[in-house]
Design a protein that fits this description.
376 residues; alpha/beta; Rossmann fold; 6-stranded mixed sheet; 4-stranded antiparallel sheet; 11 helices; flat
Length: 376
Amino acid sequence: MADIRIQNLHKRFADFVAVRDSSLTLEDGKFVVLLGPSGCGKTTTLRMIAGLEFPNSGSITLDGQDVTYLRPRERDIAMVFQLFALYPHMGVRDNLEFPLRNEGLPRPEIDRRIKEVASILRIEHLLGSRIGGLAGGDRQRVALGRAIVRQPKAFLMDEPLGTLDAEFRELMCVELRKLHERLKTTTVFVTHDQNEAMALADQIVVMNQGEILQADDPEGIYNFPSCLFVASFIGRPPMNFLKVGSGVLPGMTDVPVDGAHVNGRASGARRAARACATRRQRQRRTRRAGQARRVLRLALDRRARVGRRHAEGRRGQGPATRRWRPRRPAIQHRAHRAVRRENSGAAAERQHPRAPTGHAPWLASLCKGLPRRSAT
């Protein structure tokens, strides 16, 4: 475990500035999320921390050591990529063992770490499988295991949940948070999804156009944004804005909005916030009570329907004497109806020989007065 310090980091690609004089301190053992829209510089910052990109200026310190221009293998850091970057020609166990074999660890230590990581991620049954036959969630677990098995000072994750479906992404958010609380390793997580950031982070760093706009805990980011971009980017639906006619100075109680003066006393704001929170709690309780009533109503309706069916029986038989009859397949039903039609047609022909079945009623009525065919 280690803290990471970034001082005046600057990265330029030709005429495009990806990261602009950014400074940040990532505390030891914290889960830090770099959040922002696409192209804001969060992935470039992560790659510079990992050593995959070198900055034009500035410094990066890992656990007190300057690692700005060190190679990735010289930094005690493990990275999880968006597309997992697993070796397809190897099995699951070989993928997990590969970084440990490169470090020259003995076989008993490798087996011990593999067993421990497989138990943590619940992939013991996948150790003998091939990578090509795994689902997306299992590949994600294997990629995490390959990073965890090294026991690094810090984890770097570049949108590892971006390729998963929404339902499994929520499940993996819970798994990642539990994993972090168990390992207590410094983790830097890159995402553009604010839901993931709010669910995972101890600290959120909001970036836009290569600059760090605000670094705070999730509650501070949500309730006390530092600028209009943070206020509009965080929250769904986003925060509402009012155009103010003039500047707002500290201590002002009346603010001109569209020619009208709005009282903005702090006590009134606190009361409004408290009333809003109470209203949300009341709505939440009402919603839960409504859901409980609907579930109870459905259960009672189902019980009533079952009771009516048992009470009615079949063809006058009571519940005690009613016998269960297996449902016939559709083809048997069709054959049974055809036999009944043939039998009814033969009986009609014996009774009225000149009245063919299936014809108009007036023809059958004309044949009623004709003599019947003798039995001989």
